[in-house]
# Entry
Amino acid sequence: MADHINIRQAPGTWVVRAAGAVLGESQNALELTEGSYPPVIYFPRGDIAMAFLDQTEKTSHCPHKGDASYFTIEGKSGPLTDAAWSYEDPKDAVAAIKDHLAFYTDRVTVEQL
# Structure
């Protein structure tokens, strides 16, 4: 793993809410820290209501994690475009985040219960 990336089991129960609705709750979330960036919580897909997320055409590349795919959250008040991302085929060093989603906290609420 890159020296500046750490992945660990996120302690406790985590929830993600968007537009007033709970999209997911997990006791199996992962916390990824990367350098001086704030920690990011990655939720297992099985703990997320994927019916409310649509994969978009947006992608990005991280030299340490690989290629990210993005998802729009369909809410009652309209779409939250590219509000979540996932590494479909992450680099071996961060393979733990495969089949997990992370969310932009300026668009949704991610909090520990």
Notes: The first strand starts at residue 5 and ends at 9. The radius of gyration is 13 Å.
